[in-house]
Design goal:
The protein contains eleven helices and twelve strands. It has about 325 residues and is of the alpha/beta class.
């Protein structure tokens, strides 16, 4: 029987999602770090992110399914060289990532973190003009990366009476945005934005896209929120922007490095700045989102095994 490897130490309920969906189509096994190379050697399908060494030694691997949206962690050239196709889970957790982005926007506007710290430390915040909070109604949010997540966020922001402009590679009108424009309009737009929310994936074109020139064009009262990928924002430029007052603050869920890297999450200590709200890449990490992503992955593997075209196939020349 054909073999599908779930490439992490899956819990019982996670493994059950795949076994129930693929019953009669394939044998499903879970493989952790110690067993992945052996289990993947004769598998036809992998779900997750197997290490490159295991992929290189696999003799029958034809299809890899990512149970999440981003594919920047995969060695696309290795997969291409072995004739392996890759599919993403794009869209499976878009709503919850958008919810987290909105939570970060509200936390910045309402100064939730700083006021919580003051009150818990025995202090108080007086009713003086310098302590005014920010309204969201009527404010302009520019969403950089107007895909599944960006559109969900736009829907939520519109309910709050915000103005929304989307920015994407190929512009097309959308009911939740005043307008959707292409990247060449970005620098002009950010000068008007109250919030710049980054939901972009990482590609050759998006790396360090948000850099010094763009941040200097923003208003000193504006906020940056990043739930896309850390390195889409240039680290040194953002540090200058935050420490020199080019912008009012930032809220970041994605970073430039991750544990066990000793410099994680920011070698410049951006996460420690007083005008920064930091969360540890958990925007999409809810139980419901996890279930939806695994169910999508299982259904897509089922499509492949039945000889149907899987959804979200990755073009190795243009991954997004």
């Amino acid at each position: 029987m054909r073999k599908v490897v779930v490439a992490w130490s899956a819990t019982d309920w996670e493994l059950k999602v795949f076994k129930e969906k693929l019953e009669g189509l394939a044998r499903v096994v879970a493989a952790g770090r110690d067993t992945i190379e052996e289990e993947l050697r004769d598998a036809e399908v992998a779900v997750g992110l197997p290490p490159d060494d295991a992929i290189a030694k696999a003799v029958n691997l034809k299809f890899v399914q990512a149970p999440w949206a981003g594919v920047d962690g995969y060695n696309l050239e290795l997969l291409r060289s072995k004739g392996i196709i890759l599919a993403s889970g794009k869209g499976c957790n878009a709503r919850v990532v958008a919810e987290h982005a909105l939570a970060l926007m509200l936390s910045l506007a309402k100064r939730v973190v700083s006021m919580d710290f003051i009150v818990k430390s025995g202090g108080w915040v007086p009713w003086t003009p310098e302590n005014y909070l920010y309204d969201l109604e009527g404010k302009l949010v520019v969403i950089l990366g107007y895909g599944n997540i960006g559109r969900e966020l736009a829907r939520m922001c519109k309910c709050l009476g915000m103005r929304v402009i989307g920015v994407r590679k190929h512009a097309q009108p959308d009911e939740y945005a005043e307008q959707v424009v292409e990247l060449d309009k970005l620098e002009t737009l950010v000068g008007e934005a109250d919030f710049l929310v980054v939901t972009l994936p990482l590609t050759r074109e998006t790396r360090s896209l948000v850099e010094e020139r763009l941040l200097k064009a923003m208003k000193p009262t504006a906020f940056l929120v990043n739930v896309g990928r850390g390195v889409v924002v240039d680290e040194e430029s953002l540090y200058k922007a935050l420490s020199q007052g080019w912008i009012a603050g930032a809220a970041l869920d994605v970073w430039w490095s991750y544990p066990p890297d000793p410099s994680a999450p920011s070698r410049l200590g951006i996460h420690k700045l007083p005008n920064v709200i930091a969360t540890p890449h958990k925007a999409g990490w809810t139980r419901e989102a996890r279930r939806k992503c695994l169910e999508f992955a299982a259904e897509n593997v089922s499509r492949y095994l039945r000889g149907e075209k899987p959804f979200n196939l990755v073009d190795y020349d243009d991954p997004y």
